[in-house]
Design goal:
globular, 4-stranded antiparallel sheet, NADH Oxidase, alpha+beta, single chain, 42% helix, 14% strand
Length: 187
């Protein structure tokens, strides 16, 4: 798949089949993530594969937060359906991984490392999509109660909690603004 086609066709997936992701595909996905840019090639990220026990604890946190959100009377229907789909064990995704930024040893690294880890997330999601594996970036990973579940060291941060699997449903592309409305020229 050509890179621009991969970027444009990638979707956030909220419903997955139960089909496992073969290890060679996972290997390629993680290898692609390792090629993300980082300052001084520090590669300041780690991948925490979330097993059943940790997944259950994180799901409980997610379900509590989702219930609060669903209680909002003016929640738009598409958002409501998306949250409900994820409440059922993260849409049935067979694989979960937390991408964690290592703590920086100086103030500049503390600034640079989390966005560097986010570039690894982007590479990971695009490589997954190139193998027909969908993903969703879950914000629950950034919640403070997730830190002890993952056993994070002081200063490390969860940049992304990703649910991965083969899509059961691929949504249509949402509209995008023209890039020119986001380009600012500085004299």
């Amino acid at each position: 798949m050509e890179i621009l086609e991969c970027i444009r066709s990638r979707r956030t997936i909220r419903q997955f089949t139960s089909d496992p992701i073969p290890q060679p595909v996972l290997d390629e996905i993680f290898e692609a993530a390792m090629w993300a840019p980082s300052p001084a090639n520090a590669q300041p990220w780690d991948f925490f594969v979330v097993g059943p026990q940790a997944r259950g604890k994180i799901l409980t946190l997610f379900q509590a937060k989702a219930a609060e959100l669903l209680a909002t009377p003016d929640l738009p229907e598409p958002k409501r359906r998306a949250v409900e789909a994820l409440m059922e064990d993260f849409g049935g995704a067979p694989y979960m991984v937390a991408v964690v930024s290592r703590p920086g040893s100086d103030p500049m690294q503390q600034i640079e490392y989390p966005p560097s880890a986010a570039t690894a997330v982007q590479n990971l999601c695009l490589a997954a999509w190139a193998h027909d594996v969908g993903s969703i970036w879950l914000s629950v990973g950034a919640a403070p109660p997730v830190r002890p579940i993952l056993g994070l060291e002081e200063g490390a941060s969860v940049v992304a909690l990703l649910a991965l699997g083969y899509p059961e449903v691929v949504p249509p592309a949402p509209p995008r603004e023209d890039y020119r409305t986001h380009v600012k020229e500085i004299p």
